[in-house]
């Protein structure tokens, strides 16, 4: 990805674009979504720029597990005691809008099924 322009999330992590960061560590950040689909809508974004889930390797397994652990932490810190949903979108048909994987954490209302 070094040949490509920085992703929106990389620009947020470097401070080039402002973001509402609710959590950060050496591996990822969690930010509020700018177009929330639920009362609480956070994105857990790895610092490593991986374009889509299809670009994951076995080397990335611990990182993906970490994203879910962070999702649990930020859900608790946001008071999502009645539950929450986590979602990865992969590519255009799934409505992935940034080519940098990110885990959505949605809560604060009753979710419907099927999601759509």
UniProtKB/TrEMBL annotation:
SUPFAM superfamilies per UniProt: HIT-like
Any GO molecular function: hydrolase activity
Residue span of motif Histidine triad motif: 100-104
PROSITE patterns named among the record's database cross-references: HIT_1 (PS00892), HIT_2 (PS51084)
Cited InterPro entries: Histidine_triad_CS, Histidine_triad_HIT, HIT-like, HIT-like_sf
Residue intervals of the HIT domain: 8-116
Source species: Rubrobacter radiotolerans (Arthrobacter radiotolerans)
Taxon lineage: Bacteria, Bacillati, Actinomycetota, Rubrobacteria, Rubrobacterales
Keyword vocabulary terms for this entry: Hydrolase
Name of the protein described by the UniProt record: Diadenosine tetraphosphate (Ap4A) hydrolase and other HIT family hydrolase
This protein's record includes keyword Zinc: no
PANTHER family reported in the protein's UniProt record: HISTIDINE TRIAD HIT PROTEIN
List of catalytic residues: 102
